[in-house]
């Protein structure tokens, strides 16, 4: 089995790819529906260096250097994927909890539990980011576990959303906005008539 100059097996890179990269990549695509450009670039760099590792025309040191670079790009991609999944969950939960407070009713949880869960989700994400910054250049992939802890909280909260309740709230909100609009139009017409009448009287 091919080894780099530090004794690492290329199989370690493939394990990282199968067990860490692919699952979280699938989760992100399910959340966003698209493949982020930054991940596509990292994946391309990872594969390019990995191919060079298997290039028999290169000397051993160069091939081993490419294996290390390949692993580094993959690690960066795994970290970024976990951060993007957390950020995507936050964006979706923001819309349900912060931006439109009435949608808190769409959770199959008491409102207090929803707010506490969201705070915990946010705090764990902040802790993950802090840990990542503190460990730059020193086993950077160790921060992934922290992001995954935060993400699990977000997923558990998101799973409590009742889509039927969301639809009903959206429908109710649309009706209220329509009524407000019609009331505004009616008020404007009445005001115009009254102003016109007043002008006629005082004329």
Overall description:
The protein is an all-alpha fold. The protein has 2 domains: 10-161, no CATH class; 164-203. The protein is 77% helix and 0% strand. The chain contains 6 helices and no strands. The chain has helices spanning 10-32, 37-53, 60-97, 111-134, 144-158, 163-202. Helix 1 (10-32) packs parallel to helix 3 (60-97) and helix 3 (60-97) packs antiparallel against helix 4 (111-134). The protein is elongated, with a radius of gyration of 27 Å. Residues 3-7 and 174-183 have low confidence and may be disordered.
Number of helix segments?
6
Overall residue-averaged pLDDT value = 82
In total, how many domains does the architecture comprise?
2
- pLDDT < 50 stretches: 3-7, 174-183
Largest sheet: none
**Structure classification:** mainly alpha
- Beginning-to-end CA distance, first to last residue: 101 Å
Radius of gyration: 27 Å
The level of helicity is: over 70%
What is the chain-wise order of helices and strands?
Answer: HHHHHH
Explain the layout of strands and helices.
Elements: H1 10-32, H2 37-53, H3 60-97, H4 111-134, H5 144-158, H6 163-202
Helix pairs in contact: 1-3, 2-3, 3-4, 3-5, 4-5
Key traits:
single chain, 203 residues, mainly alpha
Task: Describe this structure in a few short sentences.
The protein is mainly alpha-helical. It is built from 6 helices and no strands.
């Amino acid at each position: 089995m091919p080894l780099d100059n530090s004794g690492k097996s290329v199989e370690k890179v493939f394990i990282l790819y199968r067990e860490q990269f692919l699952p979280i990549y699938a989760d992100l695509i399910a959340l966003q529906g698209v493949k982020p450009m930054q991940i596509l670039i990292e994946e391309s760099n990872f594969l390019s260096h990995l191919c060079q590792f298997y290039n028999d025309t290169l000397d051993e040191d160069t091939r081993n250097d490419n294996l290390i670079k390949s692993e580094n790009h993959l690690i960066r991609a795994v970290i970024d994927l976990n951060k993007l999944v957390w950020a995507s969950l936050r964006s979706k939960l923001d819309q349900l909890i912060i931006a439109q407070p009435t949608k808190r009713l769409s959770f199959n949880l008491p409102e207090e539990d929803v707010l506490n869960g969201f705070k915990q989700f946010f705090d764990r994400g902040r802790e993950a980011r802090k840990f990542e910054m503190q460990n730059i250049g020193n086993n950077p992939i160790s921060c992934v576990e922290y992001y995954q802890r935060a993400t699990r909280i977000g997923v558990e909260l998101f799973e409590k959303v009742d889509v039927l309740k969301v639809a009903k709230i959206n429908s109710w909100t649309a009706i209220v906005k329509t009524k407000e609009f019609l009331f505004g139009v009616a008020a404007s017409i009445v005001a115009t008539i009254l102003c016109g009448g007043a002008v006629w009287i005082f004329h």
